[in-house]
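Lab manual, section 2.4: Encoding a predicted structure.

Procedure: take the sequence of the chain (316 residues), apply the prediction step described in section 2.3, and record the output as structure tokens. A sample record is shown.
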Amino acid sequence: MNYADNALQRGFAVVSTDSGHNVAVDNNPNALGAVSFGMDPQARLDMGFNSYDPGFHIPKLGIDGAWVSKAFAAIATSNDPNGAPLINKTFSDPDLLLLRQAVLERCDALDGVADGLVANSTACQAAFDPQTAVLPSGQPLQCPGAKTDSCLTSAQLVALKTALQAPVNGSGQPLYSDWPWDAGFGGIANGAYNQTWRSWWLGTYDSSVNTSQRLNGPSAQSWLIDWASPPIQVPVTGVASRILAFDFDVDAPKIFATSGIYTTSAADFDIYDSTDLSAFKAHGGKLIMLTPMVNWIEHGTPPASVPASATTPGRW
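Recorded output:
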């Protein structure tokens, strides 16, 4: 991106925010650095209420990150220097490309057009099973025996299926929505493997430490410091191990908890659940929203990219 040719330079009106905190000031190395503003209850409220309208389900996404990371940690065969399983080693870039190819082989044409996209996501979720899927060559995606470069093991595919399921507590109650099968797991662009999905879910394959955003990055760190009440202080080197020790019965409810000076829970300041916009409309509020999202709010019909479980009654 050419930052000298940005929207402001080109004459557009631009709005930006620091979300109510300054990471150059609110940066405590003993409280995970740039996310340490969560130690200040007022900074939490500024982020949730005063700097912009509440978010969607960001604290719950942190819970899902723990679920996903645990699924991959179960098949990890080596640890990082801090003792946490290296989940980035569980799938290579070519492995994820195989998964992409298998998804497209089964789901690409379900919308009537074979164009390299999964446009009928609902049909794909019903049709695709990685353990019975085949590659464009006709070869099964699942290895019949030992792992080779042209297939994925049963353990890898079970871990993927678990990771994409909705996280649940000990009572079986879903704590977040599930994730769809899609072609975005991997790919090649300009001669390089696409790192987008794996940077969040797995981390860089060649790294000797965990770099997954959901296990060891700002997403995981923010859950510990900014959304749990009281904040869970661990050293940066201990974030991955703490996330992998996540208890879905004990830790997950901490986003609804208050404690001492933390008199407002993360659920109150950073979760937006209601679709009732009457008060917003009454005081003249203006909302820019994608058309599929308008249909979801006004008619209860989720866009194709939203799993059905996201609208299932009884979710947490």
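Check your result against the sample. The CA atoms of residues 64 and 104 lie 26 Å apart.
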